[in-house]
Write a structure and sequence with these properties.
2 copies of one chain form a homodimer. Helices cover 59% and strands 4% of the residues of chain A. Chain A contains 5 helices and 2 strands; from the N terminus they run ααββααα. Chain A has 2 domains: 1-81, Multidrug-efflux Transporter Regulator, Chain: A, Domain 2; 84-129. Chain A is mainly alpha-helical. In chain A, α4 runs antiparallel to α5 (85-129). At the A-B interface, α3 and α5 of A face α3 and α5 of B. Chain A binds a DNA duplex through residues 9-11, 20-23, 25-26, 30, 41-45, 62, 67-69. Chains A, B: Keywords: DNA-binding. Chains A, B: One of its GO terms (molecular function) is DNA-binding transcription factor activity. Chains A, B: This is DNA-binding transcriptional MerR regulator. Chains A, B: Residues 128-137 have a biased composition (Basic and acidic residues). Chains A, B: Residues 128-153 are annotated as: Disordered.
Chain lengths: 153, 153
DNA sequence: CTAGGAGCTAGAGTCGGCTCTAGGTCAACC
DNA sequence: GGTTGACCTAGAGCCGACTCTAGCTCCTAG
């Protein structure tokens, strides 16, 4: 029972979350932490495991595009304590919807990119083989247009 | 044969691409167009269908996170004409990789979000039913920690 | 006892990607 | 002939999310 509820310095938290110390102070100032970060000797921040866990969630939410104000709002709700679970749920559901939508859009984009990569690959190894009389393939001008996918979106 | 190769005003292009006229001028200034936009009466921009097609591709690339400098680089290559297909391919492949990675990350994030939504849904309809003697579920303090997914990433 | 390293605060700076403003030109309508 | 309304240029401003700086306090090691 050594490092259970061990408290970490800002540098250690930075190291294990991948955030910069600047970002950690910035997040704190922005109110994304649920409980105030404790201070140790000389006013230094001392993060609990809970703080780090929460931070981990925050990082994932941020990575999925949740803006800081929404994150702060969520933190506010959690800080308020039990009783506002519907609001938290609503916030998360909304974010869930946005992430799902973004995934969809991204997948569509990927289709086009994959298509274009394919076209260039074909084009390039047609050149390599410097083939005979079979037509090189139509509709490549300066660049291929959006021909196949993406036209519908 | 009326509007084939019709040329469009900046306003019309804005309308059908969803970009603002400001953004269109900005993109032009940033060199993302392959050929210079023609000018009509009084120096007004006149977009060809090709311009709009290219723009459509650009929009998709941007939507998938390609930064403007990369887009410009791509446009530069296309403008140069045939002979640099390997470079174009490389650029697209790199972007393809990044988009794929981003999709993966986003999917992981979505897992956590889905999980948390699930937890709150359970929690809320347990409350609604105000059930009997079965324990409400452990490990919900202020908020559920990252318990299930995301812990590995 | 001093030099280095980690931390502190407040606030300025940066970057990407637009967005907006000021001041002007046209063409068309009333 | 005056007023819209769409367009023009050059350049300033904005927003989000950090990032960096200056000037300070500690603690520890040499």
């Amino acid at each position: 029972m050594a490092d259970v509820t061990a408290s970490l310095s800002i540098g250690q938290v930075a190291e294990r979350t991948g955030l910069s110390v600047h970002a950690l102070r910035f997040y704190e100032q922005q109110g994304v932490f649920v409980s105030p970060i404790r201070r140790g000797a000389g006013g230094r921040r001392s993060y609990s495991q809970d703080d780090v866990d929460w931070l981990t969630v925050c990082i994932i939410l941020r990575a999925s595009g949740m803006p800081l104000p929404a994150l702060r709002r969520y933190a506010d709700l959690v800080r308020e304590g039990a009783g506002n679970e519907e609001e938290r749920l609503a916030l998360l559901q909304e974010h869930h919807g946005r992430v799902t939508a973004q995934l969809g859009r991204l997948a569509q984009c990927l289709d086009l990119i994959t298509f274009k990569v394919g076209v260039y690959e074909d084009l390039i190894d047609q050149k390599r083989h410097a083939a005979g009389p079979d037509r090189p393939r139509p509709s490549i001008g300066g660049d291929v247009p959006a021909s196949r996918p993406g036209t519908s979106a």
